[in-house]
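Thread: quick sanity check before group meeting

JM: Hey all, I'm pulling together slides for Thursday and realized we never actually wrote out the predicted structure for the chain we discussed last week. Dropping the sequence here so it's in one place. If anyone has concerns about the input, flag it before I start.
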Amino acid sequence: MSVDEDSRRLAELGYKQELARTWSGFSNFAISFSIISILAGCFTTFGQAWNNGGPIAISWGWPVISLFILIIGFCMAELVSAYPTAGGIYWWAAKMGKPIHGWFTGWLNLIGLIAVTASVDYGCATFLNIVLARLTGGAWAGTLPQTFLLFVIVLALHALINIFSHRLISLLQNVSVWWHVAGAVIVVAILVFAPSDHQSLGFVFGGTNNNSGFGDGSDGLPFWLYVLPLGFLLTQYTITGFDACAHVSEETHGAARTAARGLWQSIFYSAIGGWILLLAFLFAATNVDELNKQGGFVGAIFETALSSPLATVVFAISTIGQFFCGMSCVTSMSRMTYAFSRDGAVPGWRLWSKVDRNRTPVNAIIAGCVVAALITLPALYAPAGLTTPVAFYAVVSIAVIGLYLAFLIPIWLRLRMGDAFQPGPWTLGRKYKALCWIACVEIVIVSIYFIMPFSPAGVPGSDGFTWTSVNYAPIAVGVVLILIALWWTLSARHWFTGPRRTVDEETETV
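JM (edit): ok, ran it. Output follows.
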C-alpha cells in the first residue's frame, strides 16, 4: 500500500495525514517488541514471581499466561487492521460502540501508557544505579533518592529524543530489536556457561516459594488460589504495551496489514525469548537463601552465580535494553495523548494536540513525562529491607490494569457486533467468537487479582500495616475512574461525541 493509499484510508476514517508516515512495517513491529522488552520486564519484575509462587510461577506461569496474551493480541490485530489510527483502542471503542465507550477506553489506555512509561523508566534507573555503583566501586551509593533522580533524568532524555529526533526514533526502534535479541542471547550464554553449577530440572519446573506473608509461607490452598496468581504479574506486565503498533499506525506504511502483523508477532517472539531468558535465570539461581534475603531481586542471581565483571555486563545489557524500552513507551504514550486530545477529550486539548514543524506532538510528550514522574513519587519511600519499593509494583499494576481494561472494551464490543463488523485485510474469520470470549474472561480475572494487596502489611487493619506496603493501584485507578465517570455524567456526555473528523471535504473526495 502506498503512502497515498494509506492517507486515503485515514481520510475515510476521518483524519488528515498530519503525522509523518515514515515508518516501515519492521519499525512498527519494533516499537511493540521494544516496549514489551524482555530485557526490562523479565529483570525488573522477576521478584514479584519469585516471591509469589517461586520457580513454577515463572517456568509454567510464563508460557501459560503468554498464550492468553497472544489470544488478546490476535483480537486486537483484527481491530487495528480494520481501523489503523493513532487513537487505536479508543477509536475502535468509539466506532463500534458509543461515545461513552470511547471515553472510558481512552482514559484507561492513557493511564496505562503513562504508568508503563513510569515503571519502565524507574526500572531503568534502578539498574543504572546498580551499574554506577559497581563501576565506581561503591562510591555511588545508589539510594532511593538517587534512583529517583536518575529516573527523572532518564524520563527527560526520552522526552528530548522523542521531541528532536523523529526520524531517529524509527531507526532506534530497529536497533532496539537487535539489541534485545543479541542482549538476551549473550545473557543466556553467560548464565549457561559461566556458573560452576546449576539448579536441577525438578527445582526449575517443580519448585515453589511463598515469601508473600500470606498462608504462613506454605503452599496450601491460599498459595494456589491467591499467592501464585499474584506472581503472574511478571508475565502480564512484561508482555504489554503492544498496542503501540496501533498508536503509530498513522506513521506506518501499509498499516492495515503491517500493524496487525507487527502486533501479534511482537507478542509471539517476546514470549519465546522471554521464557528462554527466565529459564536461564532459574537454572543459575543456586543461592536461594541470598535471593530470598534480597526480596527476590534478580540481581542476587547474577551477583552469586557470576564473577563481578560478568555480573556488571548482564546489568549493563539490561539497563540499555530498558532505556530503549522507555524511549518507545514515550513514543506510544505521546501518540495516544495527541490522538485523544485532538478529539477534545483531554483538558487543554488544543495544547496537547498541536504538532511542531517536524510534525511531532511536543506538548503531548512533555505532559505525559511530567505525569509519569508525579505518579512515581511514592517510590521515594520503601519498607525496610526491600530493594524494590512496593510503589514500583503498584505502578506496574496500574499499567497492567489500565492497559488491559482498555483492551477489554473494544474486544467486547467487537464480540457484540458479530457479523456487522467489517474486518480489514487481516481477520480472525469465524474464530473471533471463541478468541474474544477467552480474552475478555482473562482480562477480568487479571484485573481483579492485581488490585489486591501484595503482602499482609499492605492490608488495612492488619498487624504490622504500613502505608509503604500498600498496593495503591486500586486507589489510583479507582479515583481516576470515579473522576472520569463524574466528568462524563456532569459534563462530557453533553459535548463529547467521539472521534472528530479533521479531514476537509477536499481530502475526503480524493
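AS: nice. Residues 99-135 form the longest helix (37 residues). The chain has one domain: 3-14+26-499.
JM: adding both to the slides.
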